[in-house]
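Hi there,

I know you've been waiting on this one. I reran it after we fixed the sequence typo, so this is the corrected version. Both the input and the resulting structure follow.
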Amino acid sequence: MKIVTYLATILLAISQVFTAPDPNFHIYLAFGQSNMEGRGKIYQEDKTVDSRFQMIATVDGCKGRKFGEWNDAIPPLSNCNMGQLGPADYFGRTLVKKLPHEIKIGIAVVAIGDCDIQLFEKTKNRNYRIPNEIKNTYEAYGRNSYSRLIEMGKKAQEVGVIRGILLHHGENNIGQTDWPNRVKAIYDNILNDLDLNSDDVPLLAGEVVSSEKGGKYGEMNPIIHNLAKICSTCHIISSQNLDSEDDGFHFTTNAYRTLGERYAEEMLKIHNYNQSAITTNNCWAHRLGFQCCKNYKIEVAYSDSDGDWGIENGEWCGIDNTCWSETLGYPCCNTNGCQTIYFIDSNGMWSVENDNWCGITPANTIC
């Protein structure tokens, strides 16, 4: 019986290792109407994508994909009823191009053209009168686009880490000054339902086609900008100089590519992915020509106006004995060898040891 129990424990441990979310898989939720759904013509060059960029099928059967399964992010990323190339495509492609090779990007797009923002309001979407032209897409999303977005978020959390939310919407709520507050409420509901922190999961909202480029609803952009005034973790993505199709609603394929890149550049900036910034060791002793002690609990050998000093391998070292992650229930990382940054949030930089998160301290060396 002891052997059986032991084997069961081992199998459970192995199972937990293999099913643990990958901190290097950074996933983004995307929602909105037709411009997020994508209306850009898909060219041959758009059909080849780095396998580090993955999409989850948010509907069943589009391009032979099975609902809830991950695939290479070949457009359309939303659905096959109307979806073509949209900003999410080159958002992900730009991220994988600029991030370290070990990081993968995932996207989950739930978008329905010609819909009011009400379709994503948690408690009101069921009362929305569905226009005939979007009924098929609405049905494909299980007759509840908000619930489908949350469902996709939970599936994402099984395999990776949600790092942000993308939105493109506004044309169907032209002139409605309450749109920012309604979007903020949707954002708050998503965060609550997925147990996310706004500081770690920003929302990026794109402008509609500008009036200068023939946009019929360019007057909505000042209202969209008001979202950032009531939401500190909401950011606006400009559509300046982006061409539209003749309909005055949708961007051209090239414009979608650029818009996606703008979403990505903003996300890179928000998450401080800049490698020169995140690999800087902030040990206070460096400015004095010394290293920080590898053992952050080392005995203090001397103290002066600069700080506490210890001795390692016969050399003075600065003591930084604040293991900031312990207060959050996690140990600090071992200082033997280098540490890979797997995640950055408002608390600090994180790595993984023994299948558990650990906080990176100034004494650590970054790989």
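Quick highlight: The first strand starts at residue 25 and ends at 32.

Best,
R. S.
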